[in-house]
Amino acid sequence: MSDDARPAPTLAHENVEDDEGHPILVAVDQNQTFEFAVDEKECAVYTKEHDVSLLNMIASWMTNLPPQAPFPPPPHIVQKPLSDMVKQAKDRGNEAYKKKDYVSAIKHYTMGLAMASSRPMWEASGVVAEELSIMLANRSAAFLAAEAYIEALCDADAVTKINRVWGKGHFRKGKALAALQRFDEARAAFDLGQQFEPDNEDFVKAIAELP
């Protein structure tokens, strides 16, 4: 019998339950039928035929959305109040940095990082990446000025992983490595960043300052 001539599957297990009292239904996957149990209380399904862990995770996450949230959420939504708060934290950090109050600057940048990373997963990933990159780069500079060189390197390295083609992340990484007297690695970081921003004179100056 050809695939087209196969009879449609029927719910032979309708009103049948598993050992825990969950109703058993039948689904079709590429002309093959398989059974699955439904736990309505937990908003989860169970089957031995497929890995449904991701489906159950998404279903569980959806149940935690506030009642007023769009369902499903519209793509590329951005919460402007949260964006304003992140910017405010960045601006306050910049003001403290200019005053050489590096402890306060680090505190404000850290607050901005926490807010930026708290965005829901449906928001535009580019917005989150940009906020995190800027805040980490700024905090790296503040750590460097406060002579916390390891922390400065960690933040800068994170920037290069989030946004590899942004020269400032490699510049911050090079400065932190130079402060740690890891000059060969610093030169490599500056050279890589300069490839992305060949007209940036900061790289030329930073490389010239290396022993």
From TrEMBL:
Entry coiled-coil feature ranges: none
Annotated region described as Disordered, given as residue ranges: 1-21
Source superkingdom: Eukaryota
Keyword Protein biosynthesis: no
Gene3D superfamilies, A to Z: Tetratricopeptide repeat domain
Keyword entries, A-Z: Repeat, TPR repeat
A Gene Ontology molecular function term of the record: Hsp90 protein binding
Protein name: Translocation protein sec72
Species in which this protein is naturally found: Malassezia caprae
